[in-house]
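Action item from last meeting closed. Structure (342 res):
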């Protein structure tokens, strides 16, 4: 069967048109994806990550690292750190070295690891971010915490010192690092830092107080007393130190000495509820129930959401035979416990 020249030309034209349509379609698809990426970035910046995720999921696919990157960022802002890690971990090291895209992926991946409690994984990513964002105080704060969580005390101290503008090996840097360690429940590391701080400066304010705080928490009452008294010697206006001393003395059963210290704490700072609660307990032990009630009532006036104050007052009212009043206080304490009150 023969094909005419005219028919052959039509076929050739159709083939050429089809070939031209392929790159044109690809270009349109790339343009559409770029538009969606831009819209998603805007949504993230507007604190609407869920809407961004919905848009990005519709264009996601194998090999689309630009979509994966922005999805990871969106999941991070949506507080879904597990999915952020799933998106960013496979691509962070494949992006062009030093590019804005790689920097964003590494930073967000490090923060996601940190917030997911994967501190060992977070450290190298945060360290890499610090190379180009050394002046970022928030990054230094987060990295310092990650070092504490991984037991790297010296690195933590250096990170916190840099963040707070202190010399790395100064007494103040050791003290500051210890405060962070206590907050992160790393008391053993904190004790070592505090002892190094006091070796450098025996009269450093807060050093003995924090050692006393750790001792009190661990039930080492004699040590708590001696360290707190040492703090008061160098810092006699420290209301918290007098409160801590009073608390330790009351726990030792030395009620009169404890009450005296707590009273001094109140004189220095009459608006802090904790000394009133311990005073209430002390006066209960001394069977001075009316005075105890006054102390606990004052604590609640200053801190209405203090669960402990309401609970101890409930115990006191129960002892005084005021059952309905006691039920009311216990109910408040139970409600506050559900809300995360003290």
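Sequence:
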């Amino acid at each position: 069967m023969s094909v005419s020249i005219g028919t052959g030309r039509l076929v050739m034209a159709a083939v050429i048109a089809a070939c031209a349509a392929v790159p044109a379609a690809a270009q349109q698809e790339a343009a559409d994806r770029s538009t969606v990426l831009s819209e998603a970035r805007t949504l993230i910046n507007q604190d609407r990550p869920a809407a961004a995720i919905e848009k990005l999921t519709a264009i996601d696919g194998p090999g689309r690292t630009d979509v994966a990157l922005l999805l990871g960022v969106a999941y991070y802002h949506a507080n879904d750190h597990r999915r952020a890690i799933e998106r960013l971990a496979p691509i962070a090291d494949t992006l062009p070295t030093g590019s804005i895209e790689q920097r964003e992926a590494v930073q967000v991946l490090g923060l996601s690891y940190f917030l997911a409690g994967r501190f060992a994984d977070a450290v190298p990513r945060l360290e890499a971010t610090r190379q180009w964002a050394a002046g970022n105080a928030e990054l230094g704060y987060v990295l310092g915490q990650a070092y504490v969580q991984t037991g790297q005390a010296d690195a933590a101290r250096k990170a916190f010192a840099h963040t707070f503008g202190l010399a790395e090996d100064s007494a103040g840097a050791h003290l500051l690092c210890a405060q962070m360690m206590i907050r992160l429940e790393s008391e053993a590391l904190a004790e070592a830092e505090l002892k190094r701080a006091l070796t450098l400066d025996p009269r450093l304010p807060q050093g003995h107080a924090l050692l006393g705080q750790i001792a009190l928490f661990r039930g080492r009452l004699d040590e708590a007393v001696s360290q707190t008294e040492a703090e008061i010697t160098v810092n006699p206006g420290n209301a918290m130190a007098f409160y801590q001393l009073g608390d330790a003395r009351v726990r030792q059963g030395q009620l009169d000495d404890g009450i005296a210290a707590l009273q001094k704490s109140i004189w220095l700072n009459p608006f802090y509820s904790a000394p009133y609660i311990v005073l209430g307990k002390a006066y209960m032990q001394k069977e001075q129930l009316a005075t105890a009630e006054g102390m606990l009532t004052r604590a609640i006036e200053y801190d209405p959401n203090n669960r402990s104050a309401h609970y101890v007052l409930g115990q006191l009212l129960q002892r005084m035979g005021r059952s309905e009043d006691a039920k009311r206080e216990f109910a408040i304490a139970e409600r506050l416990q559900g809300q995360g009150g003290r």
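Note appended to the action item: Confidence is low (pLDDT under 50) at residues 1-5, 15-22.
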